[in-house]
Specification:
Blueprint lengths: L1 H5 L3 H47 L3 E3 L11 E6 L5 E5 L4 E4 L6 H45 L1 H9 L1
Antiparallel strand pairs: 1-2, 2-3, 3-4
Helix pairs in contact: 2-3
Length: 159
């Protein structure tokens, strides 16, 4: 095989070079297209996480290990109720990031971490809301007695 390369004509060498360049350009364009798709998907995830966090009115602590490569001096990280990631550094500095600014692998790590936590939070929020509605219905029913006695209320107002 090595001998075949040594005995190539200049035209054959150029042809092989051009074929290599074509292949490299094609691969690069495919990678660019895939990166663009990944970016659009991550932006969609960012918007969805923001909506979820806002609806649940909660924040979640995050594992700092997810951000160690980019921020070696990370002290802690929190996903706030706006869906932003707040990173506290040991230096006292604070960095804010959105999901759309993260690498795909970081997004996947965070999704695996936050989905179970959000599910628990949603269950608790739903239970709390159900209890509040039950109490509010009872309160409303008791206040409806006032409307059932319009003559009594008018007498109290005139006195």
């Amino acid at each position: 095989m090595a001998e075949a390369v040594l005995h190539q004509t200049p035209e054959e060498k150029n042809s092989a070079l051009f074929a290599g360049i074509d292949s490299l350009v094609d691969q690069t364009l495919q990678i660019y297209e895939l990166s663009s798709k990944e970016s659009a998907i991550i932006q969609s995830i960012d918007a969805s996480i923001s909506l979820l966090m806002g609806a649940l009115k909660t924040s979640l602590p995050l594992r700092p290990e997810t951000f160690h490569i980019e921020f070696p001096a990370i002290k802690s990280a929190v996903l706030n109720s706006n869906g932003e990631i707040i990173i506290m550094l040991a230096t006292g500095n604070i960095v804010t990031k959105k999901f759309a600014e993260l690498e795909g692998s970081q997004v996947m790590d965070l999704i695996r971490e936050i989905v179970p936590k959000l599910s628990q939070g949603a269950d608790a929020k739903k239970e709390s809301a159900t209890e509040e509605i039950t109490v509010l219905k009872k309160v409303s029913k008791q206040f409806q007695r006032v409307r059932a006695q319009p003559g009594q209320l008018a007498r109290v107002e005139t006195e």
